[in-house]
Amino acid sequence: MKIGFIGLGNMGAPMAANLARAGHKVSGFDMATVTVNGVSNARSAAEAATGADVVITMLPNGDILRAVAAEIIPAISQGAVLLDCSTVDVDSARSVAQDAEAAGLLPLDAPVSGGIGGASAGTLTFMVGGSVEAYQIALSLFEIMGQKSVHCGTSGNGQAAKICNNMILGVTMIATCEAFALADKLGLDRQAMFDVVSTSSGYSWSMNAYCPAPGIGPKSPADNGYTPGFAAELMLKDLRLSQQAAEASNADTPLGQAATELYRAFVEDEDGKGRDFSAMLPRFEGKRRS
Ligand code: NAD
């Protein structure tokens, strides 16, 4: 396929490189000067999009996505797929999809999980919103860039799935970290705590697969000085998107709200920026009950 790829950052660059390596003709554009193996450099986003069968965007946020979409939609051939893999707010995803559909394009929102490692290894998971027809066209690309894709329904539903998942993740990571900090103060050995919880009703991905306590459970960023991994500021971004969506849809999410405020304080007022999101554990260790 002929692919336009806009946004060649930490995630976009390795994703575009994987598509080129698989034999697709990829024309890339980024505001910053970037060179990606096998990807030709377009001079503008519109140039990268012109004549493409699929145009992929991997951008920082909803406002930038809306601006880029307004520029490229008129340049994209009718019937082509506009595939946004960024994590953005549900409203921006739905608004861009509406504009794309009005122009005769097939929009998909397909945010990912798996991080930079997954983007490089081609093992991302895609959560996809949009028509079945568009999903079928993009499926072979998801299979190159990732190991799993789930079609979640109409436009915006990929973003909805992503923020709901990450709201659970933020809340369970905090719960796991505060429980470890309490266990420490009660004199309960961390290994014993892990052995019990990971096989009892308190188990979760945060405890079992990504244990925030160094030296306990499978290898995780905690074993590497809390170098991300999944940075606390990216968790904060996703939690904020969850609260924006909760507000817009009048959903009651008290724990999501509390998790957002804790990650906000950690990233903006404390030393959380640049650390893995599981570094909530040393944060709690250093605190007393207020
Ligand atoms: P990044 O900042 O490294 O990359 C974004 C790129 O977009 C940059 O290279 C920037 O120059 C470019 N850009 C910005 N405005 C542009 C414009 N108008 N035209 C063209 N290019 C423009 O970010 P990233 O880590 O690659 O993340 C991309 C998206 O993926 C974000 O929405 C992020 O939330 C999501 N995501 C990131 C991770 C992760 O671990 N990094 C994991 C899952 C999802």
Please explain how this structure is put together.
The protein is α/β, with parallel strands linked by helices and 290 residues long. 49% of the residues lie in helices and 14% in strands. The chain has 12 helices and 9 strands. It has helices spanning 12-21, 45-49, 62-72, 90-102, 115-121, 132-145, 157-185, 190-197, 205-208, 232-249, 254-269, 280-285; strands at residues 2-6, 25-29, 40-41, 54-57, 81-84, 106-109, 112-113, 124-130, 146-153. Strands 1, 2, 3, 4, 5, 6, 7, 8 and 9 form a 9-stranded mixed sheet that branches. Helix 1 runs parallel beside helix 5, helix 3 runs parallel beside helix 4 (90-102) and helix 10 packs antiparallel against helix 11 (254-269). It is elongated. The model has no long low-confidence stretch (mean pLDDT 97).
